[in-house]
Specification:
Blueprint lengths: L2 E6 L4 H12 L4 E8 L3 H11 L3 E4 L4 H5 L6 E4 L7 H9 L3 E4 L2 H17 L4 E3 L2 H9 L6 E8 L9 H5 L3 H5 L8 H9 L1 H14 L6 E5 L5 E7 L4 E5 L5 H9 L14 H4 L13 H12 L3 H17 L5 H14 L8 H22 L1
Parallel strand pairs: 1-2, 1-4, 2-3, 4-5, 5-6, 7-8
Antiparallel strand pairs: 7-9, 9-10
Helix pairs in contact: 4-5, 5-10, 9-14, 10-13, 13-15, 14-15, 14-16, 15-16
Bound molecules: magnesium ion.
């Protein structure tokens, strides 16, 4: 039997790689719907090739896709908050989720996980770190802590001064992963890792002091868990997003799929690990602090950071201003505990407006 799948964000980085996986596993999947953001031409090409039941461009139509119970699984691979509402709809229709969208858990992790539990829906993470942890966990009650790896981004070996004067091109030159621009800047500041600890907290239900981050420049160990008896289980593999994408959409089965070559320890030869430098990457501490505050604190963190990153990409502010602006917004934010979805969207909107004002003052 073919697994019926829809992809939200089929024209993006994760979406296009997911279609490469599906092309290899043609006899395993039937595509119900493809939804793209802006790229009309690419979506049309994808539709011609994969013949989905329907396609949609932009936000309209996502609700229809996510309430179509014919879907066995929906890959939520769009970026930004537009992923949130369709994910809810899919959960309420009992459809499993392969989750690549960060905002869903960072903004509304408590509600999303509670709804998933209520409707018996599985949320399989696509992000390489969470996918790694998902693969390592056998019995979650016996796990002591989660260890999330971070490549360290392009500024790992650079000084704080170099980082302060970094250009957009330098920030976008990620040494290991080929991703969208927003997430690549987040990887340079380690905010991406900050958002990932918040996601991990929600996905696996661990307190923040049981979630460690370790810098691992080779990006071979994708993350690990430590059991109560001291045993550490890590998931290891070449840094290719095809692997976690395929894992998430074929779970619990595994297929050869797009695997290009067999893993060789001797070719890798060495693996390095070091503590993250919280002084050089203060965003990581900010993310821990906001995560611990809970409620809308992480909504504020996410919205302020995203607007600041856009301003950096537009050449309006410097790289370090992203942190300064985000920190200021977080300091001033009055946290709402147990927010409703409407409150979450209201906070998101307000913080974005205020952040844009603050960016204006920085120029
Ligand atoms: Mg990641």
């Amino acid at each position: 039997m073919k697994r019926k799948i829809s992809i939200i964000g089929s024209t993006g980085s994760i979406g296009t790689q997911a279609l490469e996986v599906i092309e290899k596993l043609q006899d395993k999947f039937e595509i119900i719907a493809l939804a793209g953001g802006h790229n009309k031409e690419l979506l049309a090409k994808q539709a011609e090739k994969f013949k989905p039941k329907y396609t949609c461009l932009g936000e309209e139509g996502l609700e229809k896709i996510c309430s179509d119970k014919e879907n066995d699984i929906i890959l939520v691979a769009c970026s930004g908050k537009i992923g949130l509402k369709p994910t809810f709809t899919a959960i309420r229709n009992g459809i499993d989720i392969a989750l690549a969208n960060k905002e869903t858990l960072v903004m509304a992790g408590d509600i999303v996980m509670a709804e998933a539990k209520k409707y018996g829906v599985q949320i399989i993470p696509v992000d390489s770190e969470h996918c790694a942890i998902h693969q390592c966990i056998k019995d979650i009650n016996q796990v002591e802590k989660l260890i999330i790896t971070a490549s360290g981004g392009p500024f790992l070996k650079k000084s704080i001064e170099d980082m302060k004067n970094a250009t957009v091109e330098q920030a976008l030159a990620h040494p290991r992963w080929n991703m969208g621009k927003k997430i690549t800047v987040d990887s340079a500041t380690l905010m991406n890792k900050g958002l990932e600890i918040i996601e991990a907290h929600h996905l696996f239900g661990f307190d923040y002091d049981k979630i460690d981050v370790v810098i691992h420049p080779q990006s071979i160990v994708h993350s690990a868990i430590e059991y109560k008896d001291g045993s550490v289980i890590a998931q290891i593999g070449l840094p290719s997003m095809h692997i976690p994408i395929q894992y998430a959409i074929t779970y619990p089965e595994r297929f050869e799929g797009i695997k290009s070559k067999s893993f060789s320890f001797s070719e890798i030869a060495r693996l390095d690990f070091e503590k993250p430098d919280f002084e050089k990457f203060p965003t990581l501490k900010l993310a821990y602090d906001m995560g611990k505050l809970g409620g809308t604190a992480t909504v504020c963190l996410n919205a302020a950071n995203e607007e600041a990153v856009f301003a950096f990409l537009d050449g309006k502010i410097k790289l370090y201003d992203i942190y300064k602006i985000t920190k200021k917004m977080c300091d001033e934010h009055k946290v709402i505990q147990n927010p409703t979805i409407d409150e979450i969207f209201a906070v998101d909107k307000e913080v974005r407006q205020l952040t844009k004002c603050l960016v204006g003052q920085h120029q």
